[in-house]
Design goal:
Helices cover 48% and strands 16% of the residues. It is built from 11 helices and 11 strands.
Length: 407
């Protein structure tokens, strides 16, 4: 009897160790699932974020005059001629040009001194800038909320004007209509500060990248832009596939000057490239989350199968004494629930501590997001219960006489 008791004690201790092992596996699986859920939800928020303009069906064209035989004094007229020719191409519904395209990761900043009571310093006084042609807002479908657009009267000899976005207005002109107001730009020591009149207010749109917060933005008319850059960008909106315009664009620009080099890209591609890192993290985390679910399923199935095998005699005795199959099923599922509950409790605690390292990778989401944790726990529980039900069901089919003879 002592030998039999020792064997039974050894079985019991081995099974308890296996249960702790699977609980730990469930806990780690939950941590992976929570991390995967956070990164997937963060990417979903980025992919569906309202960036303030319509990137679909827009072809970006960069015309570089560096190697063309165009003097600096002729560059402005050359750029204008290119825009005129692109605007009348078949399939082009709107064409504009700009110094920088949206979500390109390129831009320039300057400090603002508004003619208001607001006195900001440091980063709070900084705004982003772009120089554009009048058709820019129409091409990108950025609505003008107040004031006017740029026009042919905004030339270098005319007073300098600007259009600002909502973030600029809220920061520098809180509770005031900025249209008609003036601001100055900080310049180098000894130079007069540049004065601009705000003639329009436009909707916010992302400037540098999709994950960035909306930054105060100022638009200048290219016709008043003093620097002669060796390149400019063009935005062409079309109802068809943007790439189909490439050949026509090349011909049109070659008609202006054959030495001008041209680069093409779609605005959709540029926006997608801005969140490529987040997309990669989402795909990788999704794979790891699926792997975690698979490991948890295999671990629970193996452990409960082992439990059923080791307790054949017990189940046989219980059924010989009149126990019903449903009671055997509940007995096995009870062990499963204990293992699962322990693993989930530990996993939630670990997740709350560990997911803080994801803070910098998340967009619009807390690393302790309750909805994500609950969803991950629910998915893991469903998978675990499904994995454990099969061996638990098998326990109800134990033949009492066979089980007793086995012992």
């Amino acid at each position: 009897m002592k030998g039999s008791d020792a064997v039974e004690t050894e079985r019991h201790e081995r099974f308890r160790a296996d249960k702790w092992s699977v609980s730990l596996q469930v806990a780690l699986s939950l941590v992976l699932l929570v991390a995967a859920g956070l990164l997937l939800r963060s990417f979903e928020k980025l992919a569906t974020l309202d960036i303030g303009f319509d990137p679909n069906n827009v072809l970006l064209v960069r015309a570089n005059l560096q190697d063309a035989n165009v003097s600096p004094g002729q560059r402005l007229e050359t750029y204008r001629e290119i825009e005129r020719r692109l605007r009348v191409l078949p399939g082009v519904t709107s064409a504009s040009r700009s110094l920088n395209t949206p979500i390109s990761g390129v831009g320039w900043t300057s400090n603002i001194r508004p003619d208001s009571s607001v006195a900001l310093t440091g980063d709070n006084a900084v705004a982003f800038f772009n120089a554009i042609s009048p058709a820019y807002f129409e091409t990108l479908r950025i609505p003008l909320l107040a004031g006017r657009n740029f026009n042919d009267l905004d030339v270098k000899t005319a007073p300098q004007v600007a259009i600002v976005d909502q973030t600029f207005a809220r920061r520098f002109y809180p509770d005031i209509n900025p249209v008609g107001r003036y601001f100055r730009l900080d310049t180098a020591p000894g130079e007069p500060a540049l004065l601009f009149q705000i003639v329009g207010l436009t909707r916010n749109s992302n400037y540098l990248a999709v994950p960035d917060e909306t930054l105060p933005t100022v638009y200048y008319p290219l016709s008043q832009f003093s620097l002669e850059h060796p390149y400019e960008n063009y935005e062409l909106r079309t109802p068809t596939a943007p790439a189909a315009l490439s050949h026509l664009v090349e011909q049109a620009i070659a008609g202006v000057n054959k030495g001008i080099s041209v680069e093409f890209r779609t605005l959709t591609q540029q926006v997608n490239d801005s969140i490529s890192q987040e997309r990669l993290l989402a795909l990788l985390s999704g794979f790891l989350g699926a792997l975690a679910l698979l490991l948890a399923m295999v671990g629970l199935y193996g452990t409960l199968s082992y439990l059923v095998t080791q307790r054949h005699t017990e189940f046989g005795v219980r059924m010989a004494l009149g126990a019903q199959p449903d009671s055997i099923l509940r007995l096995v599922m009870y062990d499963l629930v204990l293992v699962l509950a322990g693993g989930l409790a530990a996993g939630i605690c670990i997740s709350l501590a560990a997911t803080r390292v994801l803070q910098q990778m998340l967009f619009g989401l807390s690393p302790r997001d309750a909805a994500t944790i609950v969803a991950a726990a629910a998915v893991l529980s469903a998978v675990a219960l499904l994995a454990g039900y099969l061996p638990a069901r098998r326990a109800t089919k134990v033949d009492p006489m066979v089980a007793l003879r086995y012992e």
